[in-house]
Amino acid sequence: MQRALSFDQNPPLALPMRYFLSAPLFAALAAALLLWQGDAALASRWTPATLAITHLLTLGCLSMTMVGALLQMLPVVAGVGLPHARPVAVVVHVALCAGTLLLACAFWLEAPALFQLALAALLTALCLLLVACTIGLWQQHASGATATVAAIRLSLAALAITIVLGGLLAGALAFPELLSLPLPVLTDVHAMWGLFGWVGLLVVGVAFQVVPMFQVTEPYPQWLTRSFTTILFLLLLASSIGASLQQPQDRWFHAATQSAIVAGYGLFAAITLALLARRKRPKADPTTLFWRTAMASLLAALLLWLLPVAAGDAAHPLALGVLFIAGFALTTINGMLYKIVPFLTWYHLQEAIGRGAPNVNKIIPERHARLQFALHLAALLLLLAACYWPQQLARPAGAAMCASCLFLWINLLQVMRMYRRLQRQAQTGKQLAPA
């Protein structure tokens, strides 16, 4: 059973939009850094520029969008309200923006003092979010939202683990004389929980609701939604334990759990593609193209993850990151924003001006979304190729991705400008109307 949306506790449009408008700018900043640095940013996953770009994307873009979606979806889909939602949203947004910029600068400049400031800001933002969401999810959620709520709870638990691991890593860099940790292993586990746990589980939970709703497909099968995210979470725990095992005879356990995680996410991608192939509207709109590209990128990333890495091969981990972060997560975000933002805008305009609200499909012109999808796809292919030919393609890839993200931001900004203009016109009309 799929949850019918409830708008009794719907937050104001400005609450999620502050996050949705910030996310493309952080992605554009990451792409601009790649454009500036060129092939030096793709020399290794460990260079200061690469680490700065990665965290601008994962914290500034992916997590920013996920937080905005959470603050919108919990009241509407699950029927639960967050305590002090508006001030919490403002504080989390400001602290997340500041912390992300500080962390990127800390990696870029290799400055322990900046790591300390970034750690304080990010812990403030993410811990406040966790507390607010935990209190909200403690309430009885609406019937029909079980699969989505379960995925949200597990993704928040994964975020908590990611915060602890990231805090340890940042602490080791901020206070190198106090903490001595196995940084490579800890970094891999931190990345796994952040990408496959926090981002991956939340995307799965959101997809259970928005793919059938906005893509007009059949619901995901019940055998998948019933315990799928719980199994994935347990596999991530097992893989974390396996990563800590140092004996050669124990490596089979780590490999087995990683293969199971790949199989699980591969199953989700394959079922999503099958649902999209049988959607009730035969013509693929831009959001359908984004979702198909995201699922294809996820499958490619999973296959690449299973391949052995040769010693000194810098391209393999970079390509894996491009496929998962830019190909799967960023592409999914594009597809979701082109449906969620027009729908929310239309709903709020219906309340403000009634029948004068524009049709939801006209709020963002389809040709604009199609152009941005073509630019995003070109940027994704260039980024992937640049992992293997960085000298020739790093800067063109950065330029294309920067242009794509700015195009998305302009499309979203135009929506907000239209919303405010129509809202002002409606208020003026009410004031001038005779009593």
TrEMBL record:
Keywords: Membrane, Transmembrane, Transmembrane helix. The chain crosses the membrane at residues 56-81, 88-109, 115-138, 150-175, 195-216, 228-246, 252-277, 289-311, 317-338, 373-391, 397-415. InterPro entries: Cyt_c_oxase-like_su1_sf. The keyword Transmembrane helix applies. This is Permease.
